[in-house]
Amino acid sequence: xxxxxxxxxxxxxxxxxxxxxxxxxxxxxxxxxxxxxxxxxxxxxxxxxxxxxxxxxxxxxxxxxxxxxxxxxxxxxxxxxxxxxxxxxxxxxxxxxxxxxxxxxxxxxxxxxxxxxxxxxxxxxxxxxxxxxxxxxxxxxxxxxxxxxxxxxxxxxxxxxxxxxxxxxxxxxxxxxxxxxxxxxxxxxxxxxxxxxxxxxxxxxxxxxxxxxxxxxxxxxxxxxxxxxxxxxxxxxxxxxxxxxxxxxxxxxx
Length: 254
Description:
44% helix, single chain, oxidoreductase, seven-stranded parallel sheet, alpha/beta, Rossmann fold, 15% strand, Sc_DH/Rdtase_CS, 8 helices
């Protein structure tokens, strides 16, 4: 994607951008010509990653955001809009994933359930809510919500995460219906199990299950998802909204 400036002139905010898929989305969008603000609760890490990308000539900066704190969200969005001079696209990638699985539904911790729902679902809603007034001012606003294909096949012993990602898919459809008159497209990407820091805790047996069950039988990498994200941020997808796009090598079909 590095030589295709399909997002030239676009202004993009990416949450969860300190590492993993969020970092890869931010880099890919910047390489495609966008100006990007990378947001994460890991303030030092996202700052260092943004500086590293900026040294390579990319238009990136960073801001701290805490998806469990509405004031932090509003402040981060205002800073991002101030830096970018407006907003054309948002990727809601930040989520709790590490350490939220491995326990059956009868033993799941209620406090952890509440935290997963607060960050993954409520946080996505609040970030989108804060961004919508600025996206309305864009010629073609875009929101991409990152879910998971676990919500499509019901991964066991991962109930809070699966439920939160199922909620993201449903919330996307409702947002698309509401925001369509404002010329804002809202879509979901549901990646499969991807080799990032957040999945290092996943047992090898689960990795094997995915690889062996895919039509394309190999491990999934962050860059496998980039093309779909760049397409959905671009003007090429101006009539695509309310959709959930699984990107998983054919492990499960939508």
